[in-house]
Amino acid sequence: MNAPTQLPFSALIGLEQAQQALLLLAVEPRLQGMIVAAAAGTGKSTLARGMSLLLNDETIPFIEIPPSIDAENLLGGLDLEGTLRTGHMMLQPGVLARAHGGVAYVDGVNLLTDGSTNLLLAALDQGEVRVEREGISLRSAAEFSLIGSYDPAEGMPRRHLLDRVGLLVTLPGAFEASQRADVIRRNLFPPTDTWEEDLEFMQDLVRSARALLPEVTISAEQIRRLSVTALQYGVEGHRVDLFAVWTACAAAALALRDEVEDDDLVLAARLVILPRATQIPAPPPHDPSPPPPPPPPEPPEPETTEEEGETTPPEQLMLPPEQIMEALVGELPEDLEELPFRHLRRGRSGSRGSTEGKRGRPVRSLPGDPKRAKIDVVATLRAAAPWQRLRAGSQPRARGAHRRVVLQMSDVRVKQYRSKAGALFCFAVDASGSMALHRMRQAKGAVHALLQKAYVNRDRVALIAFRGGEAELLMPPTQSVELARRALDLLPTGGGTPLASALLLAADVAQQAKSRGILQSVLILLTDGRANISLRPDGNVQEELQQIGRHIAESSLHVVVVDTQRSYLSRGEARKLAEWLNGDYAYLPNANGEQIADLATSVADG
């Protein structure tokens, strides 16, 4: 049996919409790129690398950018080897400049640091990279198409980056059994001749479409229909309208037509507008009564010229027929909260402070060990420069040879970075009693809401459930939506209420997070404040809670007690618990997950 092989672009199964988007990008570079969302192992990288095959031109660069790349490699800077060899400052272009005229691919685009993402945004906006720092002045052209891919379970990319590219595609999360079998067969027994013929056909189609594109026309009415569709889906910004128009024209060119048709508009809406939706359009009003008789004809108005103030009649500003809407209505989720841009628009970045380490934004250069930190080449050379004349006298030099820079360990400077300091949101949920299922639903919603914006803020979310004899850590601190989904699917309920055990476990989780660089922790207790299980067999529950409360009150753990008990059944236990813990008290018996998440975020940002 043959070993599995990497499938070529034309042989991928179940990715027709993503392949269509890539063809559109190959025809219309003004779309600036495409972002693909899919789980691991679904062919994202193979799909992206197929772009170089579609263009079929060895002179067009295809540059892969790792998400861990730093600013110096992105933008370029000092060529240390050349500088030391020649004795003169030499500069070298960065990765973005090398991608000029071609494609830049980032696998894991959601894992880019904020600094790298900002530089990428600037290059997409300006079409060039500029370096003006530490005596270096470098400007290079950088017009390229960006192809990014990410796993939604690891968090969303920056909204600003999604706004800069025209095409957004979500690959299917699951395939039918027949499709999975086809994938295996194509990996093990690849009929390469057939795929090469398909690829040659696509290459010829792209060349023909690029040549035809300048002749493709789109009417003003079709442009208005795309704009109205964007408005009805709550899409912000005019850039989206342009992307949709360019996509429709490219779709017509790929069909070897010189006029845009309705199918092209639907495809543009599906790839450009629909992924950015923030609302579900309201259905058009339905009036079962028969239409009124037409009014009698009126005498014609005298014609006016544009100079005399010609205006558009109100009837022409009405919404167009719903051809696009009808084709897309079945592709939106029924739950508005499942729309990804809905969370991104509503999310607030907040302020978590900052922490110093080996990642983030460089803030200064200090003397240090290059084995423990990244060397700052320019600062090192600057520190060595005043001593070169003195050191040169002790170094023999052959006639005609260039003078080399003499470095010593005392000259070495290393970079110090500063990055966002995320917070830990630890949910401790009372899983006992008649209200357990309600509290679990609240916790699920809050965890999901916080994870949607966790990557931007470097936050982590953990979940503790307490019932029976002791508390249990169901989900360790994570940013993964998929891990949270698995942890939240099976939540046991019933039994006693070991509240003291939950407090100790939460304090331990916060202490471990602090040792990993997360300095701010917020504990959200969803409980009615009642406890009936002590830590020791003969212990007093209330005394234990007061003692643990004093310990937590003196720590850096911030506590929010969310009282889930009905007011007519409450005896103030949750409020008293909040006082013992020196925490905040919130009476939210009917709160949804989003409200609880907002409460937790406001505590961290405050």
Summarize the model shown.
The protein is α/β, with parallel strands linked by helices. 40% of the residues lie in helices and 17% in strands. Strands 15-14-13-16-17-18 form a six-stranded mixed beta sheet, with helices on both faces. The chain has a five-stranded parallel beta sheet with strand order 2-5-8-1-9.
Give the topology, please:
Blueprint: H1 16-27, E1 33-37, H2 44-55, E2 62-64, H3 71-75, E3 76-78, H4 80-86, E4 91-93, H5 95-98, E5 103-107, H6 114-126, E6 128-133, E7 136-141, E8 145-150, H7 159-164, E9 167-170, H8 177-188, H9 192-212, H10 220-232, H11 239-254, H12 262-273, H13 323-328, H14 340-346, E10 354-357, E11 361-367, H15 377-384, H16 388-392, E12 413-420, E13 423-430, H17 436-452, H18 454-457, E14 460-467, E15 470-478, H19 481-489, H20 499-515, E16 520-527, H21 541-553, E17 557-563, H22 573-580, E18 584-587, H23 593-605
Parallel strand pairs: 1-8, 1-9, 2-5, 5-8, 13-14, 13-16, 16-17, 17-18
Antiparallel strand pairs: 3-4, 6-7, 10-12, 11-12, 14-15
